DNA sequence: ACAATTTGGTGTATGTTATACACAGATAGG
DNA sequence: CCTATCTGTGTATAACATACACCAAATTGT
Protein backbone atom coordinates (compact mmCIF):
# COMPACT_ATOMS: atom_id res chain seq x y z
CA UNK A 1 0.00 0.00 0.00
CA UNK A 2 2.82 2.33 0.79
CA UNK A 3 4.81 1.43 -2.29
CA UNK A 4 2.04 2.53 -4.62
CA UNK A 5 1.62 5.74 -2.68
CA UNK A 6 5.26 6.57 -3.20
CA UNK A 7 4.84 6.07 -6.91
CA UNK A 8 1.74 8.24 -7.03
CA UNK A 9 3.22 10.96 -4.86
CA UNK A 10 6.73 11.04 -6.21
CA UNK A 11 6.59 9.42 -9.61
CA UNK A 12 5.52 10.95 -12.86
CA UNK A 13 2.46 9.27 -14.27
CA UNK A 14 2.53 8.87 -18.04
CA UNK A 15 -0.76 9.03 -19.83
CA UNK A 16 -1.27 5.73 -21.61
CA UNK A 17 -2.04 6.14 -25.27
CA UNK A 18 -4.44 3.26 -25.72
CA UNK A 19 -7.90 2.81 -24.36
CA UNK A 20 -10.72 5.27 -23.78
CA UNK A 21 -10.10 8.74 -22.47
CA UNK A 22 -10.36 8.86 -18.72
CA UNK A 23 -13.35 10.72 -17.35
CA UNK A 24 -11.52 11.88 -14.28
CA UNK A 25 -7.97 12.46 -13.14
CA UNK A 26 -6.11 11.73 -9.93
CA UNK A 27 -5.85 15.46 -9.29
CA UNK A 28 -9.58 15.97 -9.67
CA UNK A 29 -10.34 13.00 -7.46
CA UNK A 30 -8.01 14.18 -4.72
CA UNK A 31 -9.42 17.71 -4.94
CA UNK A 32 -12.97 16.42 -4.64
CA UNK A 33 -12.04 14.25 -1.67
CA UNK A 34 -10.40 17.22 0.06
CA UNK A 35 -13.46 19.34 -0.61
CA UNK A 36 -15.66 16.73 1.05
CA UNK A 37 -13.31 16.29 4.00
CA UNK A 38 -13.04 20.04 4.54
CA UNK A 39 -16.80 20.42 4.57
CA UNK A 40 -17.96 17.28 6.35
CA UNK A 41 -14.92 15.61 7.84
CA UNK A 42 -12.88 12.60 6.84
CA UNK A 43 -15.73 10.31 7.81
CA UNK A 44 -17.77 11.63 4.91
CA UNK A 45 -15.07 10.64 2.44
CA UNK A 46 -16.04 7.25 1.08
CA UNK A 47 -15.14 5.82 -2.26
CA UNK A 48 -18.79 5.92 -3.24
CA UNK A 49 -19.13 9.55 -2.22
CA UNK A 50 -16.05 10.68 -4.11
CA UNK A 51 -16.98 8.76 -7.23
CA UNK A 52 -20.51 10.08 -6.99
CA UNK A 53 -19.10 13.60 -7.10
CA UNK A 54 -18.25 12.88 -10.74
CA UNK A 55 -21.35 10.86 -11.51
CA UNK A 56 -19.42 7.60 -11.74
CA UNK A 57 -19.71 4.39 -9.79
CA UNK A 58 -17.68 3.42 -6.76
CA UNK A 59 -15.43 1.02 -8.56
CA UNK A 60 -14.39 3.49 -11.23
CA UNK A 61 -12.18 5.18 -8.64
CA UNK A 62 -9.96 2.12 -8.46
CA UNK A 63 -8.81 2.79 -12.00
CA UNK A 64 -7.06 5.90 -10.69
CA UNK A 65 -6.12 5.07 -7.11
CA UNK A 66 -5.16 1.65 -5.71
CA UNK A 67 -7.24 2.09 -2.57
CA UNK A 68 -8.53 4.47 0.02
CA UNK A 69 -5.34 4.53 2.05
CA UNK A 70 -3.42 5.82 -0.94
CA UNK A 71 -6.13 8.37 -1.63
CA UNK A 72 -5.72 9.74 1.87
CA UNK A 73 -1.95 9.90 1.37
CA UNK A 74 -2.55 12.02 -1.70
CA UNK A 75 -5.13 14.16 0.08
CA UNK A 76 -2.67 14.97 2.82
CA UNK A 77 0.17 16.03 0.60
CA UNK A 78 -2.12 18.05 -1.63
CA UNK A 79 -3.75 19.75 1.34
CA UNK A 80 -0.33 20.73 2.68
CA UNK A 81 0.30 22.57 -0.53
CA UNK A 82 3.41 24.18 -1.94
CA UNK A 83 6.05 24.67 0.73
CA UNK A 84 6.84 28.33 1.48
CA UNK A 85 10.02 30.24 0.77
CA UNK A 86 11.22 31.74 4.03
CA UNK A 87 14.58 32.92 2.79
CA UNK A 88 13.40 36.51 2.34
CA UNK A 89 12.33 36.88 5.94
CA UNK A 90 14.96 38.88 7.83
CA UNK A 91 16.05 38.52 11.44
CA UNK A 92 17.60 35.08 11.60
CA UNK A 93 16.05 31.77 12.45
CA UNK A 94 13.43 32.96 14.91
CA UNK A 95 11.05 34.95 12.69
CA UNK A 96 11.53 32.34 9.97
CA UNK A 97 10.54 29.49 12.22
CA UNK A 98 7.70 31.51 13.70
CA UNK A 99 6.33 32.19 10.25
CA UNK A 100 6.75 28.53 9.38
CA UNK A 101 4.73 27.57 12.43
CA UNK A 102 1.99 30.01 11.50
CA UNK A 103 1.82 28.68 7.96
CA UNK A 104 1.54 25.16 9.30
CA UNK A 105 -1.18 26.44 11.57
CA UNK A 106 -3.10 27.79 8.60
CA UNK A 107 -3.00 24.40 6.92
CA UNK A 108 -4.50 22.79 10.01
CA UNK A 109 -7.17 25.46 10.18
CA UNK A 110 -8.16 24.94 6.60
CA UNK A 111 -8.15 21.16 6.75
CA UNK A 112 -9.15 20.04 10.23
CA UNK A 113 -9.40 16.38 9.22
CA UNK A 114 -5.71 16.48 8.53
CA UNK A 115 -4.59 15.94 12.09
CA UNK A 116 -6.36 12.68 12.64
CA UNK A 117 -4.50 11.08 9.77
CA UNK A 118 -1.21 12.79 9.12
CA UNK A 119 1.07 10.98 11.55
CA UNK A 120 3.38 8.15 10.60
CA UNK A 121 2.17 8.08 7.03
CA UNK A 122 4.30 8.23 3.96
CA UNK A 123 5.39 11.81 3.35
CA UNK A 124 4.76 13.46 0.02
CA UNK A 125 6.86 16.12 -1.71
CA UNK A 126 4.92 18.99 -0.20
CA UNK A 127 5.10 17.66 3.30
CA UNK A 128 8.82 17.01 3.01
CA UNK A 129 9.19 20.45 1.47
CA UNK A 130 7.65 22.04 4.52
CA UNK A 131 10.05 20.09 6.68
CA UNK A 132 12.92 21.26 4.49
CA UNK A 133 12.12 24.94 4.91
CA UNK A 134 12.09 24.62 8.70
CA UNK A 135 15.34 22.70 8.80
CA UNK A 136 16.90 25.28 6.49
CA UNK A 137 15.79 28.08 8.83
CA UNK A 138 17.81 26.47 11.62
CA UNK A 139 20.82 25.68 9.48
CA UNK A 140 23.13 28.44 10.71
CA UNK A 141 22.57 28.22 14.45
CA UNK A 142 25.34 25.87 15.41
CA UNK A 143 23.00 23.03 16.23
CA UNK A 144 23.74 19.45 15.31
CA UNK A 145 21.56 17.62 12.83
CA UNK A 146 19.88 15.75 15.63
CA UNK A 147 19.18 18.95 17.52
CA UNK A 148 17.79 20.65 14.46
CA UNK A 149 15.44 17.78 13.73
CA UNK A 150 14.32 17.57 17.34
CA UNK A 151 13.70 21.32 17.37
CA UNK A 152 11.60 21.24 14.23
CA UNK A 153 9.73 18.26 15.58
CA UNK A 154 9.09 20.24 18.73
CA UNK A 155 7.74 23.31 16.99
CA UNK A 156 5.67 21.27 14.56
CA UNK A 157 4.43 19.10 17.37
CA UNK A 158 3.34 22.10 19.32
CA UNK A 159 1.40 23.54 16.41
CA UNK A 160 -0.13 20.21 15.56
CA UNK A 161 -1.27 19.46 19.04
CA UNK A 162 -2.91 22.81 19.56
CA UNK A 163 -4.79 22.89 16.29
CA UNK A 164 -7.78 20.75 17.34
CA UNK A 165 -8.60 23.25 20.07
CA UNK A 166 -8.17 26.38 18.02
CA UNK A 167 -11.60 26.76 16.55
CA UNK A 168 -13.07 25.98 19.92
CA UNK A 169 -10.99 28.09 22.23
CA UNK A 170 -11.15 31.14 20.04
CA UNK A 171 -14.47 30.53 18.34
CA UNK A 172 -17.97 31.48 19.27
CA UNK A 173 -19.64 28.17 20.04
CA UNK A 174 -16.98 26.41 22.13
CA UNK A 175 -19.14 23.39 22.81
CA UNK A 176 -16.27 21.29 24.02
CA UNK A 177 -14.88 24.00 26.28
CA UNK A 178 -18.27 24.53 27.86
CA UNK A 179 -18.73 20.82 28.49
CA UNK A 180 -15.33 20.53 30.15
CA UNK A 181 -15.90 23.72 32.11
CA UNK A 182 -19.21 22.42 33.38
CA UNK A 183 -17.61 19.17 34.53
CA UNK A 184 -14.86 21.02 36.33
CA UNK A 185 -17.28 23.31 38.14
CA UNK A 186 -19.52 20.37 38.95
CA UNK A 187 -16.64 18.59 40.67
CA UNK A 188 -14.98 21.66 42.12
CA UNK A 189 -13.74 19.81 45.19
CA UNK A 190 -11.71 17.37 43.14
CA UNK A 191 -10.20 19.98 40.85
CA UNK A 192 -9.41 23.09 42.91
CA UNK A 193 -6.53 24.29 40.77
CA UNK A 194 -8.58 23.96 37.61
CA UNK A 195 -11.40 25.89 39.19
CA UNK A 196 -9.08 28.66 40.26
CA UNK A 197 -7.71 28.84 36.73
CA UNK A 198 -11.21 29.04 35.31
CA UNK A 199 -12.12 31.78 37.77
CA UNK A 200 -9.11 33.66 36.44
CA UNK A 201 -10.22 33.38 32.86
CA UNK A 202 -9.14 30.00 31.54
CA UNK A 203 -11.46 28.30 29.05
CA UNK A 204 -13.00 31.72 28.49
CA UNK A 205 -13.60 33.61 25.31
CA UNK A 206 -11.20 36.49 25.70
CA UNK A 207 -8.70 38.05 23.35
CA UNK A 208 -5.95 35.80 24.67
CA UNK A 209 -4.20 34.04 21.83
CA UNK A 210 -3.28 30.57 23.07
CA UNK A 211 -1.41 29.74 19.90
CA UNK A 212 0.90 32.75 19.86
CA UNK A 213 1.53 32.54 23.59
CA UNK A 214 2.72 28.95 23.42
CA UNK A 215 4.63 29.52 20.20
CA UNK A 216 6.65 32.34 21.73
CA UNK A 217 7.40 30.19 24.79
CA UNK A 218 8.61 27.34 22.62
CA UNK A 219 10.78 29.64 20.53
CA UNK A 220 12.14 31.30 23.68
CA UNK A 221 13.20 27.93 24.95
CA UNK A 222 15.00 27.20 21.71
CA UNK A 223 16.66 30.61 21.80
CA UNK A 224 18.02 30.04 25.29
CA UNK A 225 19.62 26.84 24.06
CA UNK A 226 21.05 28.34 20.88
CA UNK A 227 22.53 31.33 22.67
CA UNK A 228 23.98 29.15 25.37
CA UNK A 229 25.64 27.15 22.63
CA UNK A 230 27.17 30.09 20.82
CA UNK A 231 28.39 31.48 24.16
CA UNK A 232 30.19 28.21 24.68
CA UNK A 233 32.10 28.66 21.47
CA UNK B 1 -23.65 9.77 22.65
CA UNK B 2 -21.71 12.18 24.77
CA UNK B 3 -24.43 12.41 27.42
CA UNK B 4 -24.32 8.70 28.12
CA UNK B 5 -20.54 8.81 28.31
CA UNK B 6 -20.71 11.45 31.00
CA UNK B 7 -23.03 9.25 33.00
CA UNK B 8 -20.81 6.22 32.59
CA UNK B 9 -17.62 8.10 33.35
CA UNK B 10 -18.83 10.33 36.14
CA UNK B 11 -21.99 8.73 37.48
CA UNK B 12 -22.33 5.86 39.89
CA UNK B 13 -24.07 2.88 38.35
CA UNK B 14 -26.47 1.09 40.69
CA UNK B 15 -26.85 -2.65 40.24
CA UNK B 16 -30.48 -3.39 39.42
CA UNK B 17 -32.04 -6.01 41.67
CA UNK B 18 -34.24 -7.82 39.20
CA UNK B 19 -33.25 -9.92 36.24
CA UNK B 20 -30.39 -12.37 35.71
CA UNK B 21 -26.90 -11.72 36.99
CA UNK B 22 -24.75 -10.01 34.39
CA UNK B 23 -22.00 -12.14 32.91
CA UNK B 24 -19.67 -9.24 32.39
CA UNK B 25 -19.09 -5.78 33.80
CA UNK B 26 -18.25 -2.45 32.25
CA UNK B 27 -14.85 -2.55 33.91
CA UNK B 28 -14.05 -5.99 32.48
CA UNK B 29 -15.23 -4.95 29.04
CA UNK B 30 -13.13 -1.80 29.06
CA UNK B 31 -10.11 -3.72 30.32
CA UNK B 32 -10.47 -6.30 27.57
CA UNK B 33 -10.83 -3.60 24.93
CA UNK B 34 -7.69 -1.87 26.18
CA UNK B 35 -5.82 -5.16 26.16
CA UNK B 36 -6.76 -5.66 22.52
CA UNK B 37 -5.92 -2.10 21.55
CA UNK B 38 -2.54 -2.26 23.29
CA UNK B 39 -1.63 -5.45 21.50
CA UNK B 40 -3.12 -4.96 18.05
CA UNK B 41 -4.19 -1.35 17.76
CA UNK B 42 -7.52 0.38 17.91
CA UNK B 43 -8.48 -1.09 14.56
CA UNK B 44 -8.62 -4.53 16.12
CA UNK B 45 -11.17 -3.37 18.68
CA UNK B 46 -14.57 -4.29 17.28
CA UNK B 47 -17.68 -5.02 19.26
CA UNK B 48 -17.54 -8.59 18.04
CA UNK B 49 -13.96 -9.00 19.09
CA UNK B 50 -14.48 -7.59 22.57
CA UNK B 51 -17.60 -9.65 23.19
CA UNK B 52 -15.83 -12.71 21.87
CA UNK B 53 -13.17 -12.20 24.52
CA UNK B 54 -15.85 -13.26 27.02
CA UNK B 55 -17.46 -15.88 24.83
CA UNK B 56 -20.58 -13.79 24.29
CA UNK B 57 -22.19 -12.47 21.15
CA UNK B 58 -21.68 -9.04 19.69
CA UNK B 59 -24.98 -7.66 20.82
CA UNK B 60 -24.51 -8.60 24.45
CA UNK B 61 -22.07 -5.72 24.78
CA UNK B 62 -24.84 -3.23 24.18
CA UNK B 63 -26.36 -4.20 27.54
CA UNK B 64 -23.35 -2.60 29.19
CA UNK B 65 -22.27 0.17 26.86
CA UNK B 66 -24.51 2.27 24.62
CA UNK B 67 -22.16 2.08 21.66
CA UNK B 68 -18.61 1.94 20.50
CA UNK B 69 -17.96 5.64 20.85
CA UNK B 70 -18.77 5.47 24.54
CA UNK B 71 -16.62 2.39 24.92
CA UNK B 72 -13.67 4.30 23.52
CA UNK B 73 -14.37 7.18 25.90
CA UNK B 74 -14.15 4.72 28.77
CA UNK B 75 -11.04 3.09 27.35
CA UNK B 76 -9.28 6.43 27.22
CA UNK B 77 -9.99 7.48 30.76
CA UNK B 78 -9.16 4.05 32.11
CA UNK B 79 -5.91 3.92 30.14
CA UNK B 80 -4.91 7.31 31.55
CA UNK B 81 -5.16 5.86 35.02
CA UNK B 82 -5.02 7.47 38.42
CA UNK B 83 -3.61 10.99 38.28
CA UNK B 84 -0.27 11.39 40.06
CA UNK B 85 0.47 13.36 43.20
CA UNK B 86 3.26 15.79 42.42
CA UNK B 87 3.11 17.78 45.63
CA UNK B 88 6.03 15.93 47.20
CA UNK B 89 8.40 16.83 44.37
CA UNK B 90 10.67 19.67 45.53
CA UNK B 91 12.09 22.52 43.48
CA UNK B 92 9.05 24.49 42.37
CA UNK B 93 6.98 24.19 39.26
CA UNK B 94 9.68 23.05 36.86
CA UNK B 95 10.53 19.58 38.14
CA UNK B 96 6.85 19.02 38.87
CA UNK B 97 5.81 19.85 35.36
CA UNK B 98 8.72 17.88 33.92
CA UNK B 99 7.67 14.83 35.90
CA UNK B 100 4.10 15.36 34.79
CA UNK B 101 5.21 15.40 31.19
CA UNK B 102 7.18 12.21 31.66
CA UNK B 103 4.21 10.47 33.27
CA UNK B 104 2.03 11.53 30.36
CA UNK B 105 4.72 10.20 28.09
CA UNK B 106 4.58 6.82 29.79
CA UNK B 107 0.84 6.64 29.21
CA UNK B 108 1.36 7.25 25.51
CA UNK B 109 4.09 4.63 25.39
CA UNK B 110 1.90 2.04 27.02
CA UNK B 111 -1.17 2.79 24.94
CA UNK B 112 -0.12 3.93 21.49
CA UNK B 113 -3.66 3.84 20.12
CA UNK B 114 -4.51 6.56 22.56
CA UNK B 115 -3.26 9.43 20.46
CA UNK B 116 -5.42 8.80 17.46
CA UNK B 117 -8.56 9.16 19.51
CA UNK B 118 -7.99 11.29 22.59
CA UNK B 119 -8.57 14.75 21.18
CA UNK B 120 -11.78 16.68 21.56
CA UNK B 121 -13.54 13.85 23.31
CA UNK B 122 -15.36 14.02 26.57
CA UNK B 123 -12.87 14.00 29.44
CA UNK B 124 -13.17 11.47 32.22
CA UNK B 125 -12.18 11.86 35.85
CA UNK B 126 -8.68 10.52 35.33
CA UNK B 127 -7.97 12.71 32.36
CA UNK B 128 -9.24 15.79 34.17
CA UNK B 129 -7.24 14.71 37.21
CA UNK B 130 -4.05 14.72 35.17
CA UNK B 131 -4.91 18.19 33.96
CA UNK B 132 -5.52 19.26 37.52
CA UNK B 133 -2.10 18.17 38.74
CA UNK B 134 -0.37 20.14 36.00
CA UNK B 135 -2.42 23.26 36.63
CA UNK B 136 -1.71 22.94 40.33
CA UNK B 137 2.03 22.74 39.66
CA UNK B 138 1.85 26.15 37.97
CA UNK B 139 -0.41 27.69 40.57
CA UNK B 140 2.20 29.82 42.39
CA UNK B 141 4.06 31.31 39.46
CA UNK B 142 2.16 34.53 39.04
CA UNK B 143 0.59 33.46 35.77
CA UNK B 144 -3.02 34.22 34.92
CA UNK B 145 -5.51 31.41 34.52
CA UNK B 146 -5.35 31.78 30.78
CA UNK B 147 -1.57 31.63 30.80
CA UNK B 148 -1.54 28.58 33.02
CA UNK B 149 -3.96 26.74 30.79
CA UNK B 150 -2.07 27.69 27.67
CA UNK B 151 1.18 26.56 29.27
CA UNK B 152 -0.21 23.18 30.26
CA UNK B 153 -1.71 22.82 26.82
CA UNK B 154 1.71 23.59 25.37
CA UNK B 155 3.57 21.01 27.44
CA UNK B 156 0.91 18.37 26.95
CA UNK B 157 0.76 19.16 23.27
CA UNK B 158 4.46 18.74 22.93
CA UNK B 159 4.45 15.36 24.65
CA UNK B 160 1.45 14.20 22.69
CA UNK B 161 2.82 15.18 19.35
CA UNK B 162 6.15 13.50 19.88
CA UNK B 163 4.78 10.21 21.13
CA UNK B 164 3.99 8.63 17.75
CA UNK B 165 7.64 8.94 16.77
CA UNK B 166 9.15 7.69 19.98
CA UNK B 167 9.22 3.98 19.35
CA UNK B 168 10.52 4.64 15.88
CA UNK B 169 13.20 7.23 16.48
CA UNK B 170 14.66 5.41 19.44
CA UNK B 171 13.77 1.86 18.52
CA UNK B 172 15.60 -0.72 16.53
CA UNK B 173 13.46 -1.19 13.45
CA UNK B 174 12.63 2.42 12.53
CA UNK B 175 10.79 1.51 9.38
CA UNK B 176 9.20 4.90 9.00
CA UNK B 177 12.43 6.77 9.61
CA UNK B 178 14.23 4.68 7.01
CA UNK B 179 11.52 5.26 4.44
CA UNK B 180 11.62 9.01 4.95
CA UNK B 181 15.40 9.00 4.98
CA UNK B 182 15.47 7.12 1.69
CA UNK B 183 13.11 9.61 0.09
CA UNK B 184 15.19 12.54 1.28
CA UNK B 185 18.42 11.05 -0.03
CA UNK B 186 16.73 10.11 -3.29
CA UNK B 187 15.70 13.73 -3.85
CA UNK B 188 18.78 15.33 -2.37
CA UNK B 189 18.65 18.28 -4.74
CA UNK B 190 15.23 19.33 -3.54
CA UNK B 191 15.98 18.96 0.15
CA UNK B 192 19.55 20.15 0.76
CA UNK B 193 19.00 21.24 4.36
CA UNK B 194 17.37 17.93 5.25
CA UNK B 195 20.25 16.07 3.69
CA UNK B 196 22.77 18.09 5.62
CA UNK B 197 20.88 17.36 8.82
CA UNK B 198 20.84 13.66 8.03
CA UNK B 199 24.53 13.72 7.32
CA UNK B 200 24.98 15.22 10.76
CA UNK B 201 23.04 12.48 12.47
CA UNK B 202 19.35 13.30 12.20
CA UNK B 203 17.00 10.34 11.76
CA UNK B 204 19.82 8.19 13.10
CA UNK B 205 19.82 5.70 15.93
CA UNK B 206 22.08 7.43 18.41
CA UNK B 207 21.76 8.02 22.12
CA UNK B 208 20.15 11.39 21.54
CA UNK B 209 16.92 11.67 23.49
CA UNK B 210 14.51 13.68 21.34
CA UNK B 211 11.88 13.76 24.03
CA UNK B 212 14.03 15.16 26.82
CA UNK B 213 15.70 17.66 24.51
CA UNK B 214 12.43 19.19 23.41
CA UNK B 215 10.92 19.00 26.87
CA UNK B 216 13.79 21.02 28.36
CA UNK B 217 13.46 23.59 25.56
CA UNK B 218 9.75 23.97 26.20
CA UNK B 219 10.25 24.32 29.94
CA UNK B 220 13.09 26.79 29.37
CA UNK B 221 10.74 28.91 27.32
CA UNK B 222 8.18 28.87 30.08
CA UNK B 223 10.83 29.73 32.65
CA UNK B 224 11.96 32.77 30.69
CA UNK B 225 8.41 34.03 30.72
CA UNK B 226 7.77 33.32 34.39
CA UNK B 227 11.00 35.00 35.49
CA UNK B 228 10.38 37.97 33.28
CA UNK B 229 6.98 38.29 34.97
CA UNK B 230 8.27 38.13 38.53
CA UNK B 231 10.99 40.64 37.63
CA UNK B 232 8.26 42.99 36.50
CA UNK B 233 6.63 42.90 39.91
C1' DA C 1 -9.39 -0.80 -42.97
C1' DC C 2 -9.01 -4.30 -39.56
C1' DA C 3 -7.57 -6.93 -35.74
C1' DA C 4 -5.18 -6.92 -31.49
C1' DT C 5 -4.26 -4.69 -27.36
C1' DT C 6 -4.99 -1.80 -23.75
C1' DT C 7 -7.76 0.79 -20.81
C1' DG C 8 -12.13 2.96 -18.55
C1' DG C 9 -16.46 2.16 -16.44
C1' DT C 10 -20.05 -1.05 -14.61
C1' DG C 11 -22.42 -4.79 -12.13
C1' DT C 12 -22.14 -8.19 -8.97
C1' DA C 13 -20.42 -10.47 -4.97
C1' DT C 14 -17.94 -10.84 -0.48
C1' DG C 15 -16.57 -9.75 3.98
C1' DT C 16 -16.47 -6.48 7.75
C1' DT C 17 -18.38 -2.97 10.35
C1' DA C 18 -22.03 -0.90 13.88
C1' DT C 19 -26.36 -1.26 15.55
C1' DA C 20 -31.77 -1.61 15.65
C1' DC C 21 -35.29 -4.88 17.11
C1' DA C 22 -37.82 -8.71 18.74
C1' DC C 23 -37.58 -12.64 21.56
C1' DA C 24 -36.29 -16.37 25.10
C1' DG C 25 -34.84 -17.46 29.54
C1' DA C 26 -33.56 -16.03 34.19
C1' DT C 27 -34.46 -13.52 38.49
C1' DA C 28 -36.52 -11.17 42.25
C1' DG C 29 -40.53 -8.44 44.39
C1' DG C 30 -45.35 -8.36 45.23
C1' DC D 1 -47.34 -17.59 41.83
C1' DC D 2 -46.79 -14.24 38.54
C1' DT D 3 -45.35 -10.23 36.70
C1' DA D 4 -42.07 -6.76 35.84
C1' DT D 5 -37.33 -6.47 34.66
C1' DC D 6 -33.10 -7.65 33.11
C1' DT D 7 -29.50 -10.57 30.27
C1' DG D 8 -28.09 -12.73 26.26
C1' DT D 9 -29.26 -14.29 21.37
C1' DG D 10 -30.67 -14.35 16.51
C1' DT D 11 -31.87 -11.85 12.78
C1' DA D 12 -31.90 -7.88 9.84
C1' DT D 13 -30.12 -3.63 7.87
C1' DA D 14 -27.15 -0.30 6.08
C1' DA D 15 -22.57 1.50 5.10
C1' DC D 16 -18.21 0.42 3.91
C1' DA D 17 -13.81 -1.30 1.08
C1' DT D 18 -12.63 -4.05 -2.46
C1' DA D 19 -12.03 -8.44 -5.63
C1' DC D 20 -13.48 -10.04 -10.20
C1' DA D 21 -15.51 -10.59 -14.57
C1' DC D 22 -17.38 -8.16 -18.27
C1' DC D 23 -18.36 -4.67 -22.07
C1' DA D 24 -17.17 -0.83 -24.69
C1' DA D 25 -13.98 2.54 -26.37
C1' DA D 26 -9.66 4.03 -28.36
C1' DT D 27 -5.21 3.44 -30.24
C1' DT D 28 -1.45 0.74 -32.55
C1' DG D 29 0.46 -2.34 -35.78
C1' DT D 30 -0.60 -4.86 -39.91
Textual characterization of the structure:
The structure is a homodimer of 233-residue chains. The model of chain A has no long low-confidence stretch (mean pLDDT 88). The longest helix of chain A has 26 residues, at 145-170. Chain A has eleven helices and no strands. Chain A is flat. Chain A is mainly α and 233 residues long. Chain A has three domains: 3-79, Homeodomain-like (Arc Repressor Mutant, subunit A); 81-167 and 206-232, Tetracycline Repressor, domain 2; 169-199, no CATH class. The interface between A and B is large, with 71 and 71 residues. The structure holds a DNA duplex (30 and 30 nucleotides).
Biggest chain contact: A-B, 71 and 71 residues
Order of helices and strands of chain A: HHHHHHHHHHH
Using DSSP, what is the number of strands of chain A?
0
Structural class of chain A: mainly alpha
Characterize the overall form of chain A.
flat
CATH superfamily of the largest domain in chain A: Tetracycline Repressor, domain 2
Average pLDDT of chain A: 88
* CA-CA gap between termini of chain A: 48 Å
Oligomer state of the chains in this structure: homodimer
Radius of gyration of chain A: 22 Å
Strand content of chain A: under 5%
| Contiguous helical run count of chain A | 11
Helix content of chain A: 55-70%
The name of the CATH topology of the largest domain in chain A is Tetracycline Repressor, domain 2
